[in-house]
Give the backbone structure.
Amino acid sequence: MRKRALIYSTLLLFAFNACKQSEKTYTATVFESGVSLGALSNPAIDEASGMDASIVNQGKYWTHNDSAGEPRIFLIEENGQYLGSALLEGIVNRDWEEISTGPGPEENKNYVYIGEIGDNEARYQYKLIYRIEEPLINKGDEVHVTVVDSIKFQFSDGQRDAEAFFIDQKSKDLYLFSKREKQISVYTLPYPQRTDTISIAKKLLTLPVTQITATDYDANTGELLMKNYDSVYYWKRQDQETLLAMMKRKAIVLPYEAEPQGESICFTSNGNGYLTVSEKKKGIEPVVLFYKRK
């Protein structure tokens, strides 16, 4: 009952955002409206800025804190219950903003990619994506990761703030999205990503959206999710269509429940919907919201 009251008060406090959203046209034929699965049980996860389904730990999800936190990723259940964590040794969390799971340099291994890409004032010349082999976590584990690849890069058109990227599980290319422009830019770091030099993330196109904080892509179904603070955008690739051609089409706007500061989105591990989770703000505890596929 306490959790229900907390969720209800959260939605009331942010009703003005919901009212703004109600003025928009969205398609509810693909996914249903969001429902809470539970609050994040570990109080240490107070600035959840990225989320993605684990591959090694089936049915579980990785998340992490925002700037100035520990260089640690957390594994949680779909209902927000904390399971364990992995600490990246020798690494700093300056402004971690996104996380993605997928293939990497060695066949038959799965990897976690963590984006050190936030830059509110666009003053950092270089950005980083850290890559680790995905660890198996048993309940209560706090593992230490000593082998961390650093993919260091610059954006091709200058310094940018960014909070979203994903890996294409088929091509192994990384796609990154700027945040603050009125029309954001899409960039790529093609596979194989270099760890011994500074790469250039090449600009591919612009999209008529802004303030993008998270994204997720399923290469098997050809579905792409992207969100800002008050909307979720959705594309589905058509037969023989490229990823870039798909993104050039107008997105479908999906249902989205207002959150205190929503900066995370991902498809569920079994593909039956998508999840969002917010940073903690104004004392409001974040909950995992589930949007079921129709």
Summary: The two ends are 28 Å apart (CA to CA). The longest helix spans residues 2-13. The helical segments are 2-13, 15-22, 243-248.
